[in-house]
Amino acid sequence: MSADFEDVLRIGVNDGVALSDITSIGFAPNGNVLIGDFAVQSGLRVLVVDLAGDVVAEFGRRGEGPGEFRGIVLQLFSLADGRVAIPDKGQGAYHVFGPDGELQRMVRMLRGASGNQLGADALAGADELRELVPDRTGNLFSRVAKVTETAFDTTTMVVAITEREGPREVQRLLLDGDEVSYTPVVSGWVPPGAGTPRVIELGFGDTEAGSSGNAPIAFLPKLLFTGLPDGGIAYSDSSAYAIKIAGSDGVLERVLRRRLPERPVTLRLRRAYRQWREDRIKEETDEALADLGRDMLERTEYYPHIPPVDDLKATWDGTLWCSALPPTGSRGRRTRTRALCRSE
């Protein structure tokens, strides 16, 4: 089956705008497209494009002052009231811009959350990598996707990096104060093997890299979540097709189910997954990191079957879209299918 795609919007055709490095795209409630052109050489900026493809606003720039981006910026989030929230790793804060592109406030991140400025102790400490989505009430849904703890042994010249999945809990990240605050919303099922730590050791000089601890688990069911128009949340935390709908208070209201045939992780799928991973490892230019990747691949374990839901997103009107891994089980290419549900 071949796909026939129709151009819906062309950007920069009428005004000759050159885009450098698009790392994030959002859609404002009025239909405008927000483009994060966050390449360092382009000055770190956000473009606002209307339905005709014309750039109607531009804001943000590289710098160290309020509303200026410092270092690497990768994400932007369009909020239901038209504001735009942008986490800035260098500033250790969230920039909150109004619909007109004017800075409204900067909200400090908590210490230890990903996005904090790294100082002289960058090789020692803990860091959280958070997954964020708009919650449609002017804030964000947030989950600690990964926790990384780093320790540096000056005697052996080895950096030990301990990684583990964060708690399977979705929180509401509030942007109405000088510093972010969190309130719990929903908790998901924890499959066997989730959250167990893995240690990666990186040596300097003649010290070799290696990994230890629990083996990575391929095809482990994810905790997926997306915001709904009424402030509620849709999430999937199962190895079956069961999308849960909760209200803004986190109380479960209903579960959308479909009976789908189970896809066991066969020997053929394991081989296809290994081949995909090996191809990725070959692209690594650092030989020590490539060896580390091979070591982790050799120790990889496999969940018994492929979860039917691999991604979950909601449109502004509440339509839910799901994606599933293709029959090969490879994460390199995805087939997107529409879920048979609409939240009201």
Question: What does this protein structure show overall?
Answer:
The protein has 344 residues and is mainly β. The protein has 2 domains: 1-105, Neuraminidase, CATH 2.120.10.30; 109-342, no CATH class. Helix content is 8%, strand content 40%. The protein is built from 2 helices and 26 strands. Strands 9, 10, 11, 12, 13, 14 and 15 form a 7-stranded antiparallel β-sheet that branches. A hairpin with a 7-residue loop joins strand 2 and strand 3 (45-49). It is globular.
The low-confidence runs, each spanning 5 or more residues with pLDDT under 50, are: 114-125, 333-344
Largest sheet: 7 strands, antiparallel
Structural class: mainly beta
Q: How many helical stretches?
A: 2
User: Strand content of the residues, in percent?
Assistant: 35-45%
Question: What's this model, at a glance?
Answer:
The chain has two helices and 26 strands. It is mainly β and about 350 residues long. The two termini are about 35 Å apart.
Entry keywords:
2 helices; four-stranded antiparallel sheet; 2 domains; 344 residues; Neuraminidase; mainly beta; disordered C terminus; seven-stranded antiparallel sheet
Topology:
Blueprint: E1 22-27, E2 33-37, E3 45-49, E4 55-59, E5 77-78, E6 84-88, E7 93-97, E8 103-108, E9 125-134, E10 140-153, E11 158-165, E12 169-174, E13 181-187, E14 198-203, E15 210-213, E16 217-218, E17 224-227, E18 233-236, E19 242-246, E20 252-257, E21 263-264, H1 267-282, H2 287-298, E22 301-302, E23 305-306, E24 311-314, E25 319-324, E26 335-342
Parallel strand pairs: 16-22
Antiparallel strand pairs: 1-2, 2-3, 3-4, 5-6, 6-7, 7-8, 9-10, 10-11, 10-12, 11-14, 12-13, 14-15, 17-18, 18-19, 19-20, 21-23, 24-25, 25-26
Helix pairs in contact: 1-2
